[in-house]
Design brief:
Elements lengths: L1 H6 L2 E4 L4 H24 L5 H19 L2 E5 L2 E5 L7 E4 L4 E5 L3 E6 L2 E6 L2 H19 L1
Antiparallel strand pairs: 1-2, 2-3, 3-4, 5-6, 6-7
Length: 138
Amino acid sequence: MIPIILKQKRQFLYQPGPLSTIILWSWTIVVLCLSIILALELSNHFWIPWVIGAIFIVLVWAQIHYRHIYLENGVIRVSRILNHNWVQIRLSDVQNVHASKYRLGFVYGGKIYQFLLPVNSVIELNNLIQDAQITQKG
């Protein structure tokens, strides 16, 4: 049954590690604040805050929509906003898996990867990684 699960294509939404998430979303909030301040201060050029507000909406959409983890045939493909094939990770080669309620971290190729995920996604990915490692050893 394990090979059937691993060959199934799955998709998970994620946010990068906690520090990166705070920094990226802080810059996004700065764009929103700039739009609000300009809307309150400018009376002649009322279109400028609307343009900056639209930029804010596009940033929020991009940060949510383009961050995915795809799982197919025992390989995890992590997609970022500007690089849709950022890294491809074989489940059997993952080491030092650490899972908490909303966070999944592991070492692959000497690099540490951390992702913030929904609880059920953390549980599912952690189980799939463990199953892939057991299958490889067995």
